[in-house]
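Example record

The entry below shows one chain as it appears in the dataset: sequence first, then structure tokens.
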Amino acid sequence: MRIALFTETFLPKVDGIVTRLRHTVEHLQRQGDDVLVVCPAGGLKEYKGAQILGLSAFPLPMYPELKIALPRPAIRKRLELFKPDLIHVVNPAVLGLSGIYCAKMLDIPLVASYHTHLPQYLQHYGFGALEGFLWELLKAVHNQAELNLCTSTAMVKELQDHGIERVDLWQRGVDTEMFQPHLTSAKMRDRLTQGHPESPLLLYVGRVSPEKEIEQIKPVLDAIPSARLAIVGDGPHRKVLEEHFAGTATNFVGYLKGLELASAFASADAFVFPSRTETLGLVVLEAMAAGCPVVAANSGGIPDIVTDGDNGYLFDPADPDGAIKATQRLLAAQGERERLRANARQEAERWGWPAATGQLQDYYRQVVGGQAEAIAA
């Protein structure tokens, strides 16, 4: 099958969406499909055999890491040469509209997927009053597709509740070969704790942006004075957070990749994740695959992954002491922590990328075969 994948973000950017897309592209190509990725330019012409049409873009003022590429006639010309069997638009916003337009003009089946909970993000950037309007836009855009995919059951329900049609679940995926418990490292622990490896080590990995609510980890540090926090990642909120955490045992590590990132997960005592806006929470799955016990907000797609008391702890994000109690409970009992580690790894092993990509291919085949209504019935 020939698939044109439109995405507002791709390599070299690092985030959960890009991680999912690069694994998806790799496995599609490996299994004999041909992929064309249409995205903001990042210097790549191909990835794992997939063609990349990189378009000139400008940074988003409030979030410079995000680049906006505008639709242009060259896209349609490239599609006519590529002759896709299907167009898949990821988080359609600006560039994605071009994918939708081309699908309609060239009579190509269209799939859309929803990965970023933009209506909730508005609250964190001072535009909460626009939430209703944004849902109407999302409904108008997504209802152009034969099938809309979400990465958690909570998001499937929310999209359906807001009038988006033909919605189904694209199962979670994680690289269980990369993220493994045996990658725990005394050297990495020493690095993350800034020379205090004997201290309890709390870890956050992900975008450093307002919607992630990383500030909510500070009361946990205050309540557990012996603990140290490592924040892995970067983003537009870093300077604000550096001021917020000033005077605490917090290490802003920046980006880690590959085996270094896997080792960071495996070497920590707890992965603390306060975000309430997650459609999936890929980093939570990565932590679990590495055997790192999770303390996370009971919100969005997280309850699909974490079973409270079995493979991690969930807390009520409305409870100001929720994260504190859950983290204290986790750190208090070594035996309990080891049980959670084992169960977390066991859960992650169910969700390898080959299975997630195989499910996506089944969706593609059914959409191309005109069976989309039956899929999401």
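Notes for this example: The chain has a mean pLDDT of 92. The first strand starts at residue 2 and ends at 7.
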